[in-house]
Design brief:
The protein is mostly helical. 76% of the residues lie in helices and 0% in strands. The chain is built from eleven helices and no strands. It has helices at residues 2-39, 41-47, 51-56, 68-75, 79-103, 105-111, 116-148, 156-181, 187-208, 228-233, 238-262. The radius of gyration is 20 Å and the shape is globular. 35% of the residues are buried.
């Protein structure tokens, strides 16, 4: 617990910045939602956009904007959340694993009565707690907005279904970035490889929306397991997506433990 507390202090500022920043953005959209619907300006602009663009940002013309979650599905929980999730967990893995390996700081930790497994567990716990803090604060802010403002109707069950799916997506990305961070001695190389894979996943998601012939590309991206359009419509793939994310998380965590235990470290 002391190690987890020490590591969390190292990343507390960026974790709070991401959590509070995204929550304030969600609150701003929730506050603006009633006036957007009254003017009809947003729907008019979206109707003018090509269907491929709307699909990339996970807007759905069928559901429209019956409630604020429909708006947030495209303005936050789509492409924007994919980018934020990637940057958030890349930065945590770099600060907690790749950078300490690169500058030799990790040797100091391991000189104390701390095993490599202890350190890996502590890092995974900190990344998990940071992810939970982000999605929980996001959800609580929206619940407060629902209670505080008139003209906003949020289905609590749907909201927390989205948050649960988002949390498991963050866990899976976090496990992947942790695994990659254990592969290299240089922070730059670890950051480049993990970042390239995540950027490729985002690009595949965008390309999959361009036409029916490229739709299969989304299944090569981890972000296909977090589709807010399907979550808002209540499709039956929810359990399958959660199971897939859990499996990915466990797979990369196991890989991180094995790789970190086997590798040699030097100052």
């Amino acid at each position: 617990m002391l190690l987890i507390r020490s590591l969390f202090k190292q990343v507390a500022k960026p974790v709070l910045a991401y959590s509070i920043g995204t929550s304030l953005y969600l609150l701003m959209l929730a506050v603006l939602y009633p006036s957007m619907m009254k003017t009809g300006l947003l729907e008019a602009k979206l109707k003018a956009l090509p269907p491929e663009v709307l699909k990339a940002f996970q807007y759905d013309k069928v559901t429209g904007f019956d409630n604020v979650l429909d708006l947030l599905g495209g303005n936050y929980y789509g492409l924007i959340f994919q980018v934020i999730a990637s940057l958030f967990l890349l930065s945590l893995a770099a600060r907690l694993v790749a950078r300490p390996i690169d500058n030799g700081e990790l040797i100091v930790y391991l000189a104390a009565p701390i095993t490599r497994n202890d350190y890996t567990i502590a890092v995974a716990s900190v990344m998990g707690l940071a992810s939970l803090l982000l999605v929980t604060l996001n959800g609580l802010v929206l619940m407060v907005a629902d209670w505080w403002m008139s003209g906003i109707t949020i289905d609590t069950a749907v909201l927390w279904r989205i948050q649960l799916n988002a949390a498991l997506l963050l866990f899976a990305i976090g496990a992947f970035t942790l695994f990659v961070a254990t592969l290299f001695d240089e922070e730059r190389r670890a950051f480049s490889l993990a970042g390239s894979v995540l950027v490729l996943s985002i690009v595949l998601t965008i390309l999959s929306g361009l036409s029916d012939r490229t739709e299969w590309l989304r299944y090569a991206s981890i972000f296909s397991l977090f589709n807010t359009t399907e979550l808002l419509q209540g499709t039956t793939d929810f359990g399958l997506h959660l199971s897939g994310l859990i499996a990915i998380t466990l797979l990369f965590l196991m890989g991180a433990f094995i790789q970190f235990r086997r590798r040699s470290l030097s100052i």
